[in-house]
Amino acid sequence: MNDKRIDYVVCLASLVFSILAGMISGDLFLGGLTLLTSLLCAYFASKGRRINYILGLINYLLMAYICLINNLFGLFLFNALIFAPLQIKGVCTPLALLNSMVY
Q1: How far apart are CA 52 and CA 48, in angstroms?
Q2: Which residue, 7, 13, 64, is CA-closest to 36?
Q3: For residues 58 and 38, what is the distance between their CA atoms, to the nearest angstrom?
């Protein structure tokens, strides 16, 4: 199997698993979306793809919101003020490195 086909299979399996877990837990939208973004972020990070930074940003913002509505203010601050901005830096850093490379 080629890489694209494996990526599609992993994305589809993660989507199905997230929907099932969200239906079982009773929190389909917020819980399922958080689980989906965290699974895909971990998968694409292991493959070295840059999309993991975008998925990580969405995941950390969702986690910050979940922590905020559950009055977990310490975790909210970590997710919103430390982890999420680091994902933005992760997106920008490879762009700066690619632009500075001379071929």
Answers
A1: 8
A2: 13
A3: 9
* DSSP state at residue 83: I
pLDDT tens digits, one per residue of 33-80: 999 999 999 999 999 888 999 999 999 999 999 999 999 999 999 999
> What are the residue boundaries of the structural domains of the chain, listed by start?
3-100
pLDDT in tens, 4-15: 899 999 999 999
C-beta separation of 36 from 44 below 8 A: no
Chain centre distance of CA 94: 18
Instruction: Kindly report the pTM of this predicted structure.
Output: 0.84
Q: HSE on the CB side for 65, CA within 13 Å?
A: 9
